[in-house]
Amino acid sequence: MEKRKLGAGGPEVPVICLGGNVYGWTLAEADAFRQFDAALDLGLNFIDTADVYSRWAPGHKGGESETIIGKWFAKSGRRKDVILATKVGMDMGDGRKGLKPGYIRQTVEDSLRRLQTDYIDVYQAHKDDEETPLAETLGAFDELVKQGKARYIGASNYSGARLAEALETSRKNGLASYVSLQPHYNLVEREQFETELLPVIQKYELGVIPYFSLAAGFLSGKYRSQQDTEKAARGAMVQKYLNDWGFGVVAALDEVAHATGSTPARVALAWMIAQPGITAPIASATNDKQLNDLAEAAKLKLDRTSVQRLNEASSRKVAASA
Predict the structure, then answer these.
(1) What residues does 5 pair with on adjacent strands?
(2) d(CA 63, CA 275)
(3) How many angstroms separate the CA atoms of 268 and 310, rounded?
(4) Do 76 and 111 contact (CB within 8 A), yes or no?
(5) I need a labelling partner for 164 at 20 to 30 A (CA). Which of 52, 171, 197, 203 fits?
(6) pLDDT in tens, 177-195
(7) Is the pTM value of this prediction over 0.85?
(8) 121-165 pLDDT per residue, tens
């Protein structure tokens, strides 16, 4: 498995990150355990989760994904083999949200307990908290790094301006600094990252681990009609892509997949791995075929013609709205 450094100051990670939002939601505990074993055998040892996963599911309160990962760590004894990323800041209910120092200190202990570990490799701010001064948030993260509870820190869902401000705040105050950004980015969600975030990423040499890399499954080609979405757990998330432009992107993926003897999902991920600034797209899997697609995507090298075909197909929306 090819590896890349997560920004100038982070760890070496595989070029695909395994998404943890499915654990305890669309993937039961026993199946998750099997997936972890298989993933590590394939070299997919970078796992991203969050305290809030999967609070959105009926009967869930958040923490389900971390709990399952922790149980596997305890059972397998393979914590040291995994680069673990988790996040803090999303609404957990009862006013529990944000990035105030006291909340970060409390929440990291909750995550460590669920994960059955004494450290997190990459602890991330899940979304910007504009009500809390950046120096306070970063000061709390700095404490965790000094205590060994977090090896590195990262950001997610920041604007370009706020990300730059956070990085400068760390520099000016001698605090731990974000080594990575987790943005929303894929073939059908390009504009914000490429125009607003990428210049900041490149200036400060951050790693990038985009989420929704397959656009909630749309880029795998499994949603080709309204009917395909009706019984799917993520069906509602892909409705906005069910149009001529979206299907044009899928058609381009089909073409490149056919030409390379691959699959649309592998091609979509390989396109992302080839983009400027990207370290490792995050993608989840709920069965063996999908997990194998992730591993194979890491090996797929697209030629310039294929990349250009995908660029042109996915740029139509931007051109149409200009």
Answers:
(1) 12
(2) 32
(3) 9
(4) no
(5) 52
(6) 999 999 999 999 999 999 9
(7) yes
(8) 999 999 999 999 999 999 999 999 999 999 999 999 999 999 999
Active site residues: 53
- Tokens at residue 23, please? 């654990």
Comparing C-alpha atoms, which of 184, 212, 190 is closest to residue 312? Answer: 190
Using left for φ > 0, alpha for ψ between -120 and 50, and beta otherwise, residue 147 falls in: alpha
Cα separation, 177 vs 6, whole angstroms: 13
Calpha distance 237→114 (Å, rounded): 28
Cβ atoms of 239 and 293 closer than 8 Å = no
Helix spans in 42-148 (H): 64-76, 101-115, 134-147
pLDDT tens digit sequence for 10-28: 999 999 999 999 999 999 9
Give the pair of three-digit tokens for residue 60. 């869930």
Q: How is residue 6 written in tokens? A: 């997560």
DSSP-derived secondary structure for 70-98: HHHHHHH--GGG-EEEEEE-S--STT--S
Beta-bridge partner residues of 19:
48
Question: Tokens 């099997």 map to which residue?
Answer: 34
